[in-house]
Queue: 2 jobs
Job 1
Amino acid sequence: TIAMNTNIEEKMLTTLKKYFGYTSFRPLQKEIIEMVLQGRDALVVMATGSGKSLCYQIPPLVTGKTAVVVSPLLSLMQDQVMSLKQRGIKAEYLGSTQRDSTVYSNAESGRFDILYITPERACTLSRGFWSNLLQTGICLLAVDEAHCISEWGHDFRKEYKQLDSLRGLLDIPFIGLTATATEKVRRDIISSLKMKDPFISKGSFDRANLFYGVKCFGRSLPLMDELVEEISKYLTSAGSIIIYCTTVKDTKQELFELVKAWNEENFDIDFVLQGLSFRCFESPSERSFKLCGGGGGTNTLPPSGHSNGVKLTVVLFQIYMSLQDKGIKAGIYHGQMSGKDREESHRSFIRDEVHVMVATVAFGMGIDKPNIRCVIHYGCPKSLESYYQESGRCGRDGLASICWLYYTRSDFAKADFFCGESQGIQREAIIESLMAAQKYCLLTSCRRKFLLEYFGEKSASSDCGNCDNCNNIKKERDMSREVYLLMSCIGSCGGRWGLNMPIDVLRGSRSKKVIENQYDKLPLHGLGKYFSSDCWKALADQLISKGYLKETMKDKYRTVSVSPKGVKFLSSVSGDHLPPLVLQVTDEMPD
Ligand code: ADP
Ligand code: ZN
């Protein structure tokens, strides 16, 4: 068997050189491919850019049998197929609606090395198709972006769930691949795909060349000018920037008015949305609108005459316009743009014709640009999984790159927005994910360590030295007095409010709500006037992060209460003596 193994190893290596031009496998790749060639199921959890695709692309070339790859995005499949074809590999894809009978029959008779397929299509193909392919030769079934199978994942897709039906038809290795999976999701993938004793390969998630930092903005996100100034700093070196907007301004009413006007007038009209002018027009096939002055692509209007389904991220356009005004070449990318405009926008970014891409998270999968220097999140992301993936798009070339996250506290109240129609376990999962992202924002310790631990990686005991908290320049001082005031006040108010009530009480408010609850009679009332409301919130964030306070989500509302750790602190206070508690001082806090 030793002779045979060397034989296979050699064959793997010649295949790698011949088709891909690389001289060696990365350590995990080799192991996984060997396992799969031996007929074993595999779960591959490796960071984006670590080379997962080769794990399913090499076996078909070594065995001469087809590899079937389930992939969620048509555009991604098209890219992959094109680049494989350029390497002389026989690759094709079968979409959900595509009725290409040539591809179908060629696929069935095993003409392809690699066949990409959408999950919908994979589940609806006939038994006959699979049994024909089994006869001509199929070496594996790969499920890319396998976390989509789990309701606990950050991107659940119900079509993925039905893939288990294929297991009964195909006695071949199944490979699940994903860039992000927590323990729960990993278990879900294994059981959903009915994997038998899978080989689990987990790469490190550490991206040492990425700097992680978070900036909090008291009431609202920074003005566009500030953002643009920040961006200019990173534009000095060659490379590009992505700004992800997760913040959405509610434009439903305005869009409703627009569609109404449109229906009444039925000809070209202009309209203003949050200070930006757009022009509507009608082409033979559809109704659209465009930003006046060009750029930003064509956005479709629903034909049915109501505004449901139109969600326009105005923030995106605002940032885009501010950049243009400053002479920075920017592109825009979001889900409501026409396919053609999206493609064009993507292309100009890849070709370095624009330096900054202002985008929603729709801009993402399949971006393999090496020289992205900075990814800015404008608003808190919906989960750490998506944050890790989106921010991880910078620094592919291994050079130092920067991931900034901007948030305001109100971002954390967006659970409803993210939940949409989701119910039950999915709703729970969404809220849990958002809570984790919030925790990351509020963190006062090493961010990398936190991220790695979140993904189940025991990181080195030392801090990374490459995140804002590690390189901290932030001031610190003993804040036990303020901590005492805030926690006592939260306790006195019964722990059934959000942060605003106890802070109002400390600041001596005589609002109707304060009086009704007789909180103006508390001895603490008015003792915290010297701190602004934002200062108190910044303090509370640190106490939540350190576990002295506990924030709970009830229906739509968040309540804050003192945790057992906080109670312990309070009970150790005797007379004038306060146990010291050193916390960060924000710029606005008085000494
Ligand atoms: P993933 O799917 O994990 O995001 P890819 O499969 O797209 O990663 O690979 C990322 C990049 O690494 C690609 O440009 C790929 O060509 C390159 N790559 C993969 N394996 C190797 C290797 N053994 N040697 C050199 N480069 C590799
Ligand atoms: Zn760190």
Job 2
Amino acid sequence: MLAISGVREVRFGDRIRAPPGRGPGAPDPLGSVVSGRGTNGAAEPLLSIDGLSVRFGGIVALDGVSFNVGNGQICGLIGPNGAGKTTLFNVLSRLYHADTGTILFEGKKLLDQPRHTIAPLGIGRTFQNLALFRTMTVRNNIMIGGHCRSRGGFLANALRLPFVSREERRLGERTVRLIETLDLGAVADISVSALPFGTQKRVELARALASEPKLLLLDEPAGGLNHEEVEQLRELIRSIRDRLGVTVLLVEHHMNLVMKVSDKVVALDFGRKIADGSPQEVQRNPEVIKAYLGGEL
Ligand code: ATP
């Protein structure tokens, strides 16, 4: 159970769990929130990173990093502070420039795409330090996330062309479903700034899902959450993959969460990839143990 600002207690993992008896091929009632795609098997890569390097002056933030994320996988990206995890996310979001390397997303060269096309291409993201419009309501924050899917420009909006109204209706319906899915109903019309941190994190997740991503980049989603909230987050990440077909790349320091939720884990240290495999393999990898100061993960 999760307490939202003392307003009420909710259980956000439960609502989006698949109803009993619904097989993997059955229609998904949430299919219109984000159209279902992919499987959780190690299918062909949705994301393929090859020889990626980023330098900031003398600092090598990423040093020839290569790995794949299969369609429908949950991939954990771990590493000590300064390992290069956020830099990798920033390159994927086209916020940072890569010095060398290629990134293929659905077979397309991502580094050739302008920054503003990343969300419409199907890459959604949450941030380590929340990036919400704090004075706006939860509902409006989520709706903004879906605007990258709208085709209407200034003129089409001014003329209220029929497709603009259709798109707005669709976005409104998707927002309502996301509010329900993430148990934000009690706070939907409250300013984000009035909400506790854990709830704001769910708003950010809902906003990222409103853009209908195929790949969701989660940057330390467990940061600042208590034990119970982390467990609920684990269920939620699984549900996002299982029920919405969204591939997830997860940067996280919370090892218990990463090892429990991920299908595969990639470990970085000083910008280099030091391990890539199942959670069990990576946990046993001597270089990973050394990177974490000799301690057990
Ligand atoms: P943390 O877990 O602490 O968030 P991280 O693995 O995400 O760390 P990055 O933030 O990617 O690590 O940083 C990798 C290296 O690149 C660090 O040495 C960092 O200081 C440096 N770095 C990152 N962004 C910049 C920047 N904009 N300018 C200069 N150096 C940077």
